[in-house]
Amino acid sequence: MLHYSCDMCGKSLQSGQQTRYIVQVELFEALDTDSLTEDDLDADHLDEMSEYLEELEEQFSDPAEIPPAHQKMRFDLCPGCQKRFVRDPFSRESTPKLKFSKN
Questions:
Q1: What is the maximal distance between C-alpha atoms in the chain?
Q2: Is residue 56 part of a domain?
Q3: pLDDT (tens digit per residue) in 45-94
Q4: Residue span of the structural domain in which 24 resides
Q5: Distance (Å, whole) CA 85 – CA 83
Q6: What's the rounded Cα separation, in Å, for the pair 66 and 56?
Q7: Is the pLDDT of residue 44 over 80?
Q8: Best CA proximity match to 26, nearest among 66, 73, 69, 68
Q9: Quick check: is 101 in a domain?
Q10: Which of 37, 82, 88, 99 is buried most deeply by CB count within 10 Å?
Q11: To 5 degrees, how large is the angle CA 62–CA 64–CA 66?
């Protein structure tokens, strides 16, 4: 039997006994395809890619440190956390607001 737990509160979710929700997140760089021109399509991008790879090598000594260009994540939620997630997916309401004095 598979065991699931809520990724927000840690509550145990028994398979088949309780409603469980799945949140799937896909993260990737936004590309503005409207800005492509004929020059972009005709250009030789090998030099640009070579420079980009050199920059990455300088920035990250270990290849494992290079952040992936595309990520997929999956989270299990209990019914209570699902309601909270739908209401406030980025937890903006629960994040304390800082108040600075006027010094």
A1: 60
A2: no
A3: 888 888 888 887 788 777 777 777 789 999 999 999 999 999 998 888 77
A4: 1-29+68-90
A5: 5
A6: 8
A7: no
A8: 73
A9: no
A10: 82
A11: 90
- CA angle at residue 25 from 60 to 28, to 5 degrees? 45
**Which tokens sit at 8?**
């927000």
Within a domain: 16: yes
Q: Where are the beta strands (DSSP E) in the chain?
A: 3-5, 12-14, 21-28, 70-77
Specify which residues 70 forms β-bridges with: 28
Q: Which two tokens stand for residue 72?
A: 């997929």
Question: Do residues 13 and 77 make contact, with C-beta atoms less than 8 angstroms apart?
Answer: no
Q: Kindly report the length of the chain.
A: 103
- Residue 49 corresponds to which tokens in the numbers above? 């890619």
Cβ atoms 18, 78 nearer than 8 A: yes
- pTM for the whole structure: 0.59
Q: Answer whether 88's CB lies under 8 Å from 94's CB.
A: yes
Number of domains composing the chain: 1
The amino acid present at 65, given as its one-letter code, is E
